[in-house]
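Why does residue order matter? Because the sequence determines the fold. Keep that principle in mind as you read this record.
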Amino acid sequence: MDREEVLKILKLVADGKVSPEQGRDLLEEFFESYEEAKSGGKFTIEVVDNFTGKVEANIKLPVRLARFVGNFVKEKDANFRIGGRVVDYNLKEVLEEVIKTRESVEIETEDKRVTIKVED
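Structure:
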């Protein structure tokens, strides 16, 4: 377990940047995801231009970090924007579902395709 990550969460609480309840939730997620992290896995987001086939973004994060970051997504900011358009998917919910089920999700607009998955 990474002691520094736990200390960072405690500092966020001490500095008033997150509430004690949010800090508790983050710590619980951290401890739960610590076990998952042992088995590895990368949370991947790939954005492809449908017209050119060009990969515009290929983001890979450890699952544990992706889950941790997801805790900071505010509900009002949780909707995806693809090419400036809001699509009807909640980022936090998609992130949690992909990590939990290990099944990929594809979101497609006229001009972009976003694939979200966990790779072992």
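The mean pLDDT is 83.
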